[in-house]
Amino acid sequence: MAELTLDAVTKVFQEGDGSEVVAVDDVNIDIGDGEFLVLVGPSGCGKSTTLRMIAGLETISSGEIRLGGSRLNEKQPAERDIAMVFQSYALYPHMTVRQNMSFGLEESTDLDDDTIRETVTDAATTMGIENLLDRKPGELSGGQQQRVALGRAIVRDPEVFLMDEPLSNLDAKLRAGMRTEIQRLQEDLDVTTVYVTHDQTEAMTMGDRIAVLDDGELMQVGSPLELYHRPANQFVAGFIGDPSMNFFDVSHEGGTLVGDGFEYPLSSDVASDLGETTDCVLGVRPEDVSLVESATDAHDFRTTVEVVEPMGNENNVYLSFGDEPSDEEPDQRFVATVGGLRRVERDSTVVARIPEDSVHLFDAATGDALH
Ligand code: ATP
């Protein structure tokens, strides 16, 4: 069984001047056998360092990494039964595709030449590159090189795949195609996979579960829908979703949230989740804000259209509270994603509905989700 466990894993880099950088801080994740886990977060949050510790390319400062229950910390990369695919593909330019794919097997196994040849041909067929085996990497497109890099990982039949932003050098269309292909491959091979990306769309579409990192700390691990519907804190809420969730600084006064230019009454159930907290952040996803004909509910607000961003089948409509267009930049601009057929004019007044069953509430001081 190839469950991969990260147990209080920490990485501290020592800088030349004696200072320390905590790149990964006490991270705990259990990745199930055959699971596809996506590690996502902004640049510098510690994704690559985490992956490199799993691969054995970076030492672990404290904590333990286990594969199938046995400790990996002291094992050399070649002893780990883990294959890694890099963003840069890392192919040897002077070798043919076949040589690139055979190399690892020749080095680390005692398979005979015929078996290696057959294994490589099979993997090349799986990746649809069997007609490219005699070419060199310089004679291949980016997408073809990425297939070779993936083919080289699968010939080793590893217990774990690690992928570090493998699609980021491909153009948008090719990237979308390869995403599906990697998912299918992972499902067919049923290999435990950790996939690093900074792209939340890639994370949402590919992962069985997603682990969100920020500044070396694990913010939340969960299925894409859990992260979308029940973010553990404001960071995850803002990171998952495009356009990002709207946030309003509010103070909670006796069952009403008082914001800049609006008041939002809460039902008693929701208000009770806030307890004694007064400084809160109200969050609502753009797709949960709707534009309605007239204000009939306490959660309907007169707003002014600041900008309309047509997206084809949808429009992102940027709104500010109040019905007077202003020359100044509004403090509380927020965005509603609405159907593209609806005509919305800039500077017009519209009624925006922010339904209570769609709002998220966070503690302003800690960022933790309260509701
Ligand atoms: P990106 O998406 O930009 O690749 P990342 O999430 O993969 O970022 P890491 O490369 O893991 O982030 O880096 C995490 C932190 O550790 C950063 O602050 C980085 O500057 C620091 N770091 C990484 N490698 C080293 C190193 N060899 N020495 C010192 N600091 C390092």
From TrEMBL:
Topological relation to the membrane, as annotated: Peripheral membrane protein
Highest taxon above the source species: Archaea
Principal place of residence: membrane
Coiled coil: none
Keywords: ATP-binding, Cell membrane, Membrane, Nucleotide-binding, Translocase, Transport
Similarity annotation: Belongs to the ABC transporter superfamily. Carbohydrate uptake transporter-1 (CUT1) (TC 3.A.1.1) family.
Protein known as: ABC-type D-xylose/L-arabinose transporter
Species in which this protein is naturally found: Halomarina oriensis
Lineage: Archaea, Methanobacteriati, Methanobacteriota, Stenosarchaea group, Halobacteria
Gene that this polypeptide is encoded by: ugpC
